[in-house]
Amino acid sequence: MVTLKLSSHTKFWSVLLFISIIFLSLGLYVAYMWVSNSMVSPYVIGTVSVFYTNGETYFIVIFCCCLVLVVDGIVITIDFDRGGYASRMRLLIQEEQEQNKKNYE
Questions:
Q1: What's the longest Cα–Cα distance across the chain?
Q2: What distances in angstroms separate CA 58 from CA 34, 49, 50, 72, one per listed residue?
Q3: Are 7 and 26 in contact (CB under 8 A)?
Q4: Measured distance CA(72)–CA(5) in Å, rounded
Q5: HSE of 28 in the Cβ direction (CA atoms, 13 Å)?
Q6: Sequence ranges of the domains in the chain
Q7: In this predicted model, what pLDDT tens digit does every residue of 49-73 receive, in sequence order?
């Protein structure tokens, strides 16, 4: 979820950021799931393969991701309309950009 939220708020994408998200975040998580599936306890052996073959699992993951993005969007919208931290930061950035344009013209 944290990776998804960071990805949705990232303005500038680079190859390094994309590789970091895919391999260091998602790749290590999937690798950990498969390794822990066979080494941690005999009671959980085989649960990862059931996890990946079950359609309900994918639905729950997609639903949770969408729910987090919707709630985050609502919070940001309410915060911006009420003059909260996010709106103040955006206004400061816009003012700084306008000031920089005036300085270099």
A1: 69
A2: 17, 13, 12, 21
A3: no
A4: 8
A5: 7
A6: 1-53, 55-105
A7: 787 788 888 899 889 888 988 888 8
